[in-house]
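Reminder to self: tokens first, then the designed residues, so the page reads top to bottom the way the pipeline ran.
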């Protein structure tokens, strides 16, 4: 058996980031920038009002209240052609450009109209400081600023920022296109009756969902029969037009592990026995340069294997620098019992942040690698080191399954 960290290092080193592509901003969310995004415009592009109110000369409001003559009105998207003189005010709306001469704005809540052309302004804290309620040009972003450096994950707020500087196309790491297939003559995926010895196929849709959640594009090849010709044909197909392949099943020691037989023949593979439970058997290799992740077929093993082995690689291919799930040191609210076996156990737990600010976890119960229903209740994987387990109240590192 090899240590998980060694297995991860071996596999990650063979999954370099994909070649960046130019993408329209509208399609950028969730992706990672491959180059700095630099502003070639100031934001805001001109001095403007932060409030609805009256643009004034601050020197006119050395003390409050002050009465001023209203000489113009300016809305957002317009501009006043009037130059403001002493004793005058211009009605102004939020976002409208500051009129020439004006250097501050009094908000409408501190005004009282005195007739058609006059206003009494009574802002608190007079004398009014120059710049009050004015958003100056470039106060958000200046020309030449790096608004998002290479490596930034394009969040909704980053999309908005990039729109504000008119960045219409970006160099981004593309989504990994992943072919996924499961193998096993016992698997039924079409809703039909179960024949003798048959079970429902459960990994394909689960893996598809995990891949979509990871930001990948999925091509689902369905269930492939335990037949070398069928498996080889599906793999040949999958290599074409995909950046990675994920197989489920057929990588352990069984006689019918045909994925193992075929991949051993046509690809350069590394068959691993990782010192973890579940998900000990795992295969990684390359077929025509395309990384292949051979996950075990037991549903819980497939999920844990995906989380620990495939997901970090797929994220690296998509340019992410954070590859692992978020890890926190949790408190066990009950004992987690296990026996020494030379493996690190990744027990499925559910958890909550409690009043002490700590994340508290309990086992979801059944920990068998076929018991997916219990795993479906999990919020996290608890890293239970080799030994006799943990007592109630102990600290344990956990990986949160949802960021
Ligand atoms: P394998 O990895 O092919 O040796 O399969 C290990 C166990 O997982 C067997 O009990 C299989 O029936 C089961 N299994 C394999 N693939 C799937 C699947 N896609 N859905 C549900 N169970 C599976
Ligand atoms: Mg099988």
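Designed residues (403 positions):
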């Amino acid at each position: 058996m090899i240590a998980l960290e060694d297995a991860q290092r071996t596999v990650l080193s063979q999954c370099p980031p994909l070649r960046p592509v130019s993408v329209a901003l509208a399609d950028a969310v969730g992706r990672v920038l491959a180059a700095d995004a630099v502003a070639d415009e100031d934001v805001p592009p001109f001095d403007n009002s932060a409030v609805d109110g009256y643009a004034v000369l601050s020197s006119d409001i050395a003390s409050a209240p002050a009465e001023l003559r209203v000489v113009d009105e300016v809305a957002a998207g317009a501009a006043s052609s009037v130059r403001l003189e002493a004793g005058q005010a211009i009605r102004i709306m939020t976002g409208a450009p500051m009129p020439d001469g004006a250097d501050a704005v009094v908000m409408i809540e501190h005004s009282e109209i005195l007739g058609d052309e006059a206003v009494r302004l009574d802002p608190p804290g007079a004398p009014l400081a120059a710049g009050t309620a004015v958003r100056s040009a470039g106060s958000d972003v200046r020309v030449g600023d790096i608004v998002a450096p290479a490596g930034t994950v394009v969040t909704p707020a980053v999309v908005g920022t990039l729109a504000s500087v008119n960045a219409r196309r970006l160099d981004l790491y593309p989504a990994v296109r992943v072919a996924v297939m499961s193998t096993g003559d016992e698997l039924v995926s079409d809703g039909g009756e179960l024949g003798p010895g048959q079970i429902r196929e459960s990994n394909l849709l689960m893996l598809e969902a995990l891949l979509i959640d990871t930001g990948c594009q999925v091509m689902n090849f369905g269930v492939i029969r335990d037949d070398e010709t069928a498996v080889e044909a599906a793999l040949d197909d999958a290599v074409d037009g995909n950046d990675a392949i994920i197989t489920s099943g057929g990588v352990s020691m069984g006689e019918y592990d045909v994925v193992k037989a075929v991949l051993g023949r046509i690809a350069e593979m590394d068959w691993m026995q990782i010192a973890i439970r579940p998900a000990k058997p795992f295969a990684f290799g390359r077929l025509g340069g395309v990384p292949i992740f051979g996950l075990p077929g037991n549903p819980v093993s497939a999920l844990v294997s995906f989380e620990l082995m495939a997901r970090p690689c797929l994220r690296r291919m998509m340019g992410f620098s954070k590859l692992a799930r978020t890890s926190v040191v949790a408190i066990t609210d009950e004992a987690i019992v296990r026996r020494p076996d030379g493996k690190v156990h990744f027990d499925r737990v559910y958890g909550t942040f409690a009043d002490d600010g700590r994340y508290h976890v309990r086992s979801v119960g059944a920990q068998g690698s076929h018991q997916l229903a219990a795993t479906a209740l999990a919020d996290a994987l608890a890293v239970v080191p080799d030994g006799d387990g943990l007592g109630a109240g102990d600290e344990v590192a956990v990986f949160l399954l949802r960021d």
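The longest strand covers residues 344-353.
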